[in-house]
Amino acid sequence: KIGVTDEEITRYYAGNRESFTTPPEVTLREILVAVPVSAEGLNVGVDDAAKAKAESIRDRILAGEPIARLAADESDSPSKANGGLIGPISRKDLSPELQKEIEGLKEGDLTSVLRTARGYQVLKVETLKVAEVQSLEDARADISAKIAETKRQAEFDKYLAKLRTQAIIEWKNDEIKRAYEVGLAAAETSAP
Fold first, then answer.
1. Distance CA 182, CA 55 (A)
2. Nearest to 37 by CA among 137, 118, 121
3. For residue 119, what are the CA distances in angstroms to 33, 143, 153, 167?
4. Which residues contact 103 (CB under 8 A, 6 or more apart)?
5. Would you give the DSSP letter of residue 4?
6. What three-state secondary structure class fits 133?
7. E strands, 39-163, where?
8. Segments of the chain assigned E as strands
9. Which whole number is the average pLDDT over 149-159?
10. Calpha distance 134→37 (Å, rounded)
């Protein structure tokens, strides 16, 4: 029989707090105005026109036009199919530059027109979810199950080791015996 004490649960929670923390997430809507690059390089006139279009789109959003509809009509990004929706995305998965751009923004805010490798982009923060730590009481059942499983596995391994020492094996095939001995030696060297 395996028991788990409150002290073990508290110690596990304190030592593994990050596994009970949900990462901060953000959901964005994007509109991308692509800037094509030819074999000769970047055409400055095309680049300026793309930037002007992106700024115009941003102004239209600020004037009240729905970004989802504008994304579907104007965006060059594959996300246009779902109204420019991206996410939810863990904030740690965002590039440092993008994290810096959305830092301090609230839900509903727009970024400025951003230059990216693909062109000019306007992003709207749809939702922000801060990191949340599950309380010890809420995590107690999960922690207890994890500790009990670890203890159960250790006891099971001891039981199997005991059975192996008591077993009488009669080998009918020498190749299988050699394979068993190699596997047993490997298991003993990898054991703590």
1. 69
2. 118
3. 6, 48, 54, 70
4. none
5. -
6. strand
7. 41-42, 85-90, 114-115, 119-129, 132-133
8. 21-22, 25-34, 37-38, 41-42, 85-90, 114-115, 119-129, 132-133
9. 90
10. 48
Structure tokens at 13: 């929670």
Neighbours of 81 (CB within 10 A): 11
pLDDT confidence tier of residue 182, bands split at 50, 70 and 90: very high
Q: Write out the two tokens for 115.
A: 């230059």
CA atoms within 13 A on the CB side of 153: 6
Residues comprising the chain, all counted: 192
Q: What pLDDT digit, counting tens, does each position of 115-139 carry?
A: 888 888 888 888 888 888 888 888 8
In the chain, count of helices (H) and strands (E)? 6, 8
Give the relative orientation of helices 44-62 and 67-74 as an angle to the nearest 10 degrees. 160
| Pairing verdict, β 25-34 and 85-90 | antiparallel
Which is it for strands 37-38 and 114-115: parallel, antiparallel or unpaired? unpaired
DSSP state of 83: T
